[in-house]
């Protein structure tokens, strides 16, 4: 119990950053580990009515289990992690959005009469699609290049000029706020769809669309986790080496 008590004040995002397998434990309790990963175990247990000993026991079982094949993103150089996010998660979003929008439009036309909730789902996803497209461009054109510049300067032993946005904390704060907005949008979609459970009269397109939305949200959770809990805080630490904030 001594270890469990010590971890009460550990942010849940750190658990997931140390071992991504713990994400499944938090998800099973309905605990947001990505957008709200800064909260401690004690905070989330109090808010969600979860027994902390039970939660921490399950986390310990994961962390102490053998054969951990989880990817250790935390050990990656920041430029590699930024590239990975862009080439894996940004591309995933870009590929899935047009397909999902097409399917949702079709479902609204065919099934909207019997299932008016589809119009709200379509509205929420369309809003998410537009915001994510702009969000990712800001990361690719402003934030990620500066992170890569800091990594290169560190390797080369060179100094760098302060960025035009003042400090990396400024775009990071904006990105984290946008993450929270899209996380909230998908929480609403999950609620409306009863956690992506198709109705009894659902056709194959209906079932596929719900499955794709479920997959999209899971990918978004990992995407946001990698940024909020690993890339962003490590980038802020790296910046401290160049400038006294």
TrEMBL record:
Keywords: Cytoplasm, Iron, Metal-binding
Domain Hemerythrin-like: residue ranges: 87-234
Localization in the cell: Cytoplasm
Pfam families: Hemerythrin (PF01814), ScdA_N (PF04405)
Stated name of the protein: Iron-sulfur cluster repair di-iron protein
Upper classification of the organism: Bacteria, Pseudomonadati, Bacteroidota, Flavobacteriia, Flavobacteriales
